Amino acid sequence: MEHNDSFFKPKMWVCLASMAFLIAGMCYTIFVTKLQNLHITMLTCMGFCILLLVLTGCPYKKIEEAILYSGNLIVPTLLILYTIGAVMGSWIASGTVPMIIYWGLKLINPALFLTTACIACVITALATGSSWSTIGTVGVALMGVGMGLGINPAMTAGAVVSGAAFGDKMSPMSDTTNVAPAVSGADLFDHIKAMVTTGGPALLASLVLFTVLGFSASGSASSETISQILTSLESIFHLNLLTLLPIILVLALAVMKFPAMPTLLISALVAAAIAVLVQGQSMGGIMNIMEYGFVSETGFYDIDKLLSRGGMFSMHYTASLTVIVMAFGGILEKCGILDEILSTMKGLTRTVGTTVLTTVVIEIVLNLVTASQYMTLVLGGKLMMPVYKEKDMLPQTLSRTLEDSGTVTSLLIPWNLCGAFASAALGVHCFSYLPFALFNWICPLLAVVWGFTGLFQWKTGQIPSKKTYRPVDAEAAK
What we know:
Elements: H1 2-7, H2 12-32, H3 38-55, H4 60-94, H5 96-107, H6 113-128, H7 131-148, H8 153-170, H9 175-184, H10 188-217, H11 223-236, H12 245-255, H13 260-277, H14 283-292, H15 301-307, H16 316-334, H17 337-343, H18 352-370, H19 373-390, H20 395-409, H21 417-426, H22 430-433, H23 438-453
C-alpha cells in the first residue's frame, strides 16, 4: 500500500475529465445561471474529481494528505483576508476613506482621473508589496471618487486593478515577486529588473489608454451632484489631516520593510483609535464596525452604498471560497493531475517564442483550474524550468514570464482568489472591469511579442546575472 501511495499516477482521461468538468461547471454557473454561487459548483467539481481518482485506484489517504498540504497555504491567506476586512471597516469609520474621496473630488481633474487612480495604486502597491491591501483600501476610496465624478465604475476598477497589479509585481516586498524568482532559481533584483522590460511598456501603454478613456468618459457628473457628496461627507465625518495617519503608517511601515500582517494590524488599530477620538465612535461601536462593517447614513444613495462595507464578516464569501479552491488545488497538484496535463504541453517549446507562449498559456490555465496565483507560479515554474535550462536561458527570463502571465491574470478570473477578492472589495464583477484592466492583459500579450521577436530573451552570459542555470565566466558576462 505504501508503494501504491507513493507511485500513483492518474490516467490521462481522468485528468482531462476533471478539468473539463471544472471549466464547464464554472462557465455554466457564471454565463448560464448568471449566479455568483461558485462554492457549490467548486465543491461539486472537487467531488467529481475525487470520485474519479478513487474509482481508478488512488488511495483516499493520498487525497486527504493533499487537502492537509493545502491547509498550510490556506491559513495565512485567510488571516490576510480577514485583516483587510477589518482594515476596510476601520478606515471608513476613522474618516480615512471619506477624506480621500472628499479631496479627490475637489482636486482631481475628471479627465485625468483614471490615469491618476492607476498611478496612485502603483505607488501604494510598490510601497506595501500587496495588490490586495491596495485594492481594499486606496482602491475602495478611489471607487468613491470615480462615482462622484461620474466615471463608469468598471473603468475605475480597471484602473485600480491595473495599478495594483503592476506595483505589486515590481515591489521587492511582494510575496509573488519573491515566489517567482525562488521557484525559477533567479535572483530577486535580477528578476525585478527583467520585469521592467515587459511591465514598463505595458504600464505606459495602459496610462496612455486610460488618459484617452478619461477624456471620453468624464463630464457626466454635475457640480451639484459633487457638492451634495461633499456636503454629505462633511456632515458625517470630521475631516482633517489626522484621518490620513492610517494610510501614512502603511506607506511608512512598508518602506521600513515591515511584514504585511503587522502593518495592516497597526494601521487598523490606529484607524480605530481615530474613529473613537475624532469621529466620536464608541469602543463597542468601532469593534462592531471592524467585525461587521461600516454602515453609512449620509442620505446619498451612491455614497451610502460605497461606504457601507468592510468588516471581517464581509470576507466570508471570499474566505470560504478560498478554503474550497485551495483544497481542490492541492488535490490536483499532489495527486498528479496537473503534472499529467501540463507535461503534454512540453512539446510546444521548440523555439524561444513558442516557449514563452507556452509558459503564458500554462500560467493562465493554472490560474483557471487552481484558482491560486501561488500554486500557479510554483507549478508553472517547476514545469518550465527544465525547458529554459535546455535553451540556456537566464533564470529571470522564466521568472519574469511567470509573473507577466500568472500574477497579473489572476485578478481577471472570478473564481480565482485574487479576482474574487478584487470583485468583492470594489463592488464590480471581474468580467465588467476586465476590458478596462488594461495592464493585466497588455502585459502577457507583450511578453509573447517579446518572445517571438527575441527581445530581452537573454541567454547565459549575454548580460550580467547573479544566478545562472550553468556556470559562466564572469569576464564573458560583462
